[in-house]
Specification:
single chain; 164 residues; 2 domains
Length: 164
Amino acid sequence: MARAPAAAAASKRKSAGGGLRLGSLLWLQGLACGALATMATPTFVLTSLLLMPSLLSVLMDRAQGKPTARAVMLLGLAGTVQPLVMLWRTGHTIGAALDMVSDPTVLATAWAAQGGAWLLCELGPLLIAFALEAASHARAARLRAERAAYEEQWGMPPGRDGGA
């Protein structure tokens, strides 16, 4: 009876370290990617070329959880759905996939969506910080004006208490 909790604890230690689970998951992802490349070559060619910026962002994003890469991938997938549906409706051939990739509007739409997501992720925090800084400066100016009005109304000399 004492062996069951010990075995459970040992398995929790193995999975908590992530050694076995992460390696197995990576292996399965590689197997799925290989199967997709082999069995559905037109789909693989089309998605890999349309999602090239997303793949680059996955490689370049060093942040924990890869938030920028996830946003880029999400919008990239959204820009890839319509070409994939058209590929499947037109016979699912490698020629059709290459025709779609060579169409500038298809490639530009997918890549522009991914570029926009990357730009938003990079500039978003800066724009938010700028807006918060501007709001705090405006509030400080408003409070200084109210204080000056109160000091004038009460007949106190300005800045008597040493405050700003």
